[in-house]
């Protein structure tokens, strides 16, 4: 049985949407795994607030990635979070080489900032091809993650 997308957009538009959204899934997986790793490994005097913040970055990013992956499927694509295994997505996460809270915070802030830039770039492209629902989802994701990035940066000031 062939999947028929319920979206009213032509195949060419849906394919462009998949092309822009699918890489955000793999790179989002890198971000949320890095956040989960930081959440598990943080030590030091800032443990309490950073442990909670890293957990929030993980859960928020996980939700955004899940929404994007489901949207890729709806448009007729096949997202893969497993593409981060054995390949190099644009974002490269690192296992916690340090357990120092501020070092983890700086690393996570850099990954989050890079991911927000990817989301924003995809938003502009998606908006240009008039996939309104997807543009709105990306705009919401940018706003949400920018706030978390601000919270991470506040610990580094």
Layout of helices and strands:
Blueprint: H1 11-41, H2 47-74, H3 101-128, H4 132-156
Helix pairs in contact: 1-2, 1-3, 2-3, 2-4, 3-4
Give the tags:
157 residues; mainly alpha; Ferritin; 4 helices; 0% strand; elongated
Summarize the structure.
The protein has 157 residues and is mainly alpha-helical.
Helicity, as a percent range: over 70%
CATH class, anyone? Mainly Alpha
SSE ordering: HHHH
Count the beta strands: 0
- How many H/I helical runs? 4
- Sketch the major β-sheet: none
Low-pLDDT stretches: none
| Average pLDDT taken over every residue | 89
What proportion of the residues form beta strands (DSSP E)? under 5%
Shape descriptor: elongated
- Class of secondary structure makeup: mainly alpha
Instruction: Indicate the CATH architecture.
Output: Up-down Bundle
User: C-alpha Rg, in Å?
Assistant: 16 Å
CATH superfamily: Ferritin, core subunit, four-helix bundle
Integer count of domains: 1
Distance separating the two termini: 55 Å
Q: State the CATH topology.
A: Ferritin
What does this structure look like?
The structure is a single chain. By secondary structure, this protein is mainly α. The protein has one domain: Up-down Bundle (Ferritin), CATH 1.20.1260.10. It is 71% helix and 0% strand. It is built from 4 helices and no strands. Helix 3 runs antiparallel to helix 4. The longest helix is centred in the first third of the chain and has 31 residues. It is elongated, with a radius of gyration of 16 Å. The relative contact order is 0.19. The model has no long low-confidence stretch (mean pLDDT 89).
């Amino acid at each position: 049985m062939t999947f028929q997308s319920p979206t009213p957009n032509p195949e060419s538009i849906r394919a462009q949407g998949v092309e822009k959204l699918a890489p955000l899934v793999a790179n989002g997986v890198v971000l949320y795994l890095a956040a989960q790793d930081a959440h598990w490994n943080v030590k030091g005097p800032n443990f309490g607030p950073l442990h909670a913040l890293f957990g929030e970055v993980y859960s928020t990013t996980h939700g955004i990635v899940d929404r994007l992956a489901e949207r890729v499927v709806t448009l007729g694509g096949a997202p893969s979070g497993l593409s981060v295994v054995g390949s190099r997505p644009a974002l490269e996460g690192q296992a916690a080489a340090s357990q120092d809270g501020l070092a983890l915070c700086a690393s996570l802030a850099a990954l989050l900032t890079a991911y927000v830039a990817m989301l924003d770039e995809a938003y502009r492209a998606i908006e240009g091809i008039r996939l309104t629902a997807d543009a709105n989802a990306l705009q919401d994701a940018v706003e949400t993650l920018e706030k978390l990035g601000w919270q991470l940066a506040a610990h580094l000031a």
